[in-house]
Write a structure and sequence with these properties.
With 181 residues, the protein is α+β, with helices and mostly antiparallel strands. The protein contains one helix and eight strands; from the N terminus they run H-E-E-E-E-E-E-E-E. It has a domain of 126 residues: minor pseudopilin epsh domain (minor pseudopilin epsh fold), CATH 3.55.40. It starts with 11 loop residues before the first helix and ends in a 20-residue tail after the last strand.
C-alpha cells in the first residue's frame, strides 16, 4: 500500500500574487485615508475649540462678569500671532488680558504640527449675559492638507460651523465665501 501525502502550503507564486493585490488595494486607498485623517484632525480641533468657547460663555454667566477667550503662545497672556494654547480667563477689569494667574480659568493645548487655528480679532469676550457683542467673529481651523473649518461666533455668543453651501467639498463661512487654507 502506498500512500501519497500532498503538501498543503502555498506556493511562492500564490504568495507574490496575493502581495501584489494587497499593495494595489492599499495604494488605491491611501489618498482616501489621508483625507479621512485630515478631516478627523480638523474635527478634533473644532470640537476642542467649541468646548472651550462654551466653557467661557458658561463661566461668564455663572460669574456675572466678562470672560475672555484668546489664542496664546504661553498660556498666560493673549498672543494670536503664534498660537499654541487657547486661554480662557476672567476679565472683570476689562483689559483683555489676565491680571493675575488666579484669573485664568482654563488653558487648552492646541499646538499640533498639522493644524493651525486663527481668529479674526485679538480675543473673544463674553458678557455676563452670555453675549459676545463687539467681539464676535470667526475662528479658522486649517489642516496642512488644505482641509479647513470655520467656527463662527454670533453676537449672541452662539457658535456654529461653516457649511459647504455649493456642494464642492469646501467649507464656506457664507455662500460664495470659501475657506482658504
Amino acid at each position: 500500500m502506498s500512500s501519497h501525502y500532498r503538501n498543503a502550503g502555498v506556493t511562492l507564486l500564490e504568495l507574490l500574487i496575493t502581495l501584489v493585490i494587497v499593495a494595489i488595494l492599499l495604494t488605491a486607498m491611501a489618498p482616501g485615508l489621508g483625507n479621512i485623517v485630515a478631516h478627523n484632525r480638523v474635527d478634533s480641533a473644532a470640537d476642542t475649540l467649541t468646548r472651550a468657547l462654551h466653557l467661557a460663555r458658561t463661566e461668564s454667566i455663572q460669574r456675572g462678569h466678562r470672560v475672555v477667550t484668546c489664542l496664546s503662545e504661553s498660556g498666560s497672556s493673549c498672543n494670536p500671532a503664534s498660537p499654541q494654547k487657547l486661554l480662557v480667563f476672567s476679565d472683570s477689569n476689562r483689559t483683555g488680558e489676565p491680571s493675575t494667574p488666579a484669573d485664568i480659568i482654563n488653558v487648552t493645548n492646541i499646538d499640533t504640527p498639522a493644524v493651525r487655528i486663527s481668529y479674526n480679532r485679538p480675543y473673544l469676550a463674553y458678557a455676563p449675559t452670555g453675549y459676545a457683542a463687539g467681539t464676535n467673529g470667526t475662528f479658522k481651523i486649517c489642516d496642512i492638507s488644505g482641509k479647513g473649518e470655520f467656527i463662527i461666533v454670533s453676537s449672541l455668543g452662539r457658535t456654529r460651523t461653516g457649511r459647504d453651501y455649493d456642494g464642492d467639498g469646501i467649507v464656506e463661512k457664507t455662500p460664495g465665501s470659501p475657506i482658504s487654507c
